[in-house]
Amino acid sequence: MAKPLIGISTYLEDDARWGVWRLPAALLPAGYHQLVQRAGGLAALLPPDGAPGAADETVARLDGLVIAGGPDVRPARYGAEPHPRTGPPALARDAWELALIAAALDRGLPLLGICRGLQLLNVLQGGTLHQHLPDVVGHPHHAGPPGQFARHEITPVPGTLTARLLPTPVSVPTYHHQAVDRVAPDLTPSAHTADGTVEALEFTAPRPFALAVQWHPEAGDDDRLMRALVGAAGGAAPVPAA
Hints:
Blueprint (H helix, E strand, L loop, with lengths): L4 E5 L1 E8 L2 E7 L2 H9 L3 E5 L7 H7 L3 E4 L23 H17 L3 E4 L1 H9 L4 E2 L3 H4 L12 E7 L4 H5 L4 E5 L4 E2 L6 E6 L5 E6 L6 E4 L10 H10 L9
Parallel strand pairs: 1-4, 1-5, 5-6, 6-13
Antiparallel strand pairs: 2-3, 7-10, 8-9, 8-11, 11-12, 12-13
Helix pairs in contact: 2-3, 3-4
């Protein structure tokens, strides 16, 4: 049986350096494609494409989709003014990944959102974001120093897909300063940290595999979420209820 083809969205950077080169580049930390490969899938990187219909055509050729972590979502997407700590907008990437998510949901394509991917899913479905989480929870423990992941424990909500995949609390790699504020009407939180931050979202009504997490599984060695995505992309039966 052919391995499922899993598309992963990428950054689009104006100024990247490698070897003797300094050029615009589409790029992605290697942990993402390595996690897909470890979980039994084939990885395809999906740089932003602004052509009409490109997201639909791309999703039509995939077996599963990962929306990767990255920069802050433009606040105008959820009707807010920028916070002083909100990063510059990534307009092309916002448009591309929102279109990919919409196309995947429309087709019932297995979907895993990671960090920014969770935030985009919530925004697409009508939710909002905290633009600087330390203002809300009073501490910076959801990220390490610049360029370094922190770790914290997440607790899955019983009865959810997240809890079926991760039956007990688990320590996860984390790096974010934004998070879910108002949860979209058709989504439900399926994991939290001790300070109440939403750490996973899934759809309230049953649907094909669609899950988003605030942490970074590609930065750790726990491949249970990606194996579930790859399994769903390959036509495996749904994860049984706990």
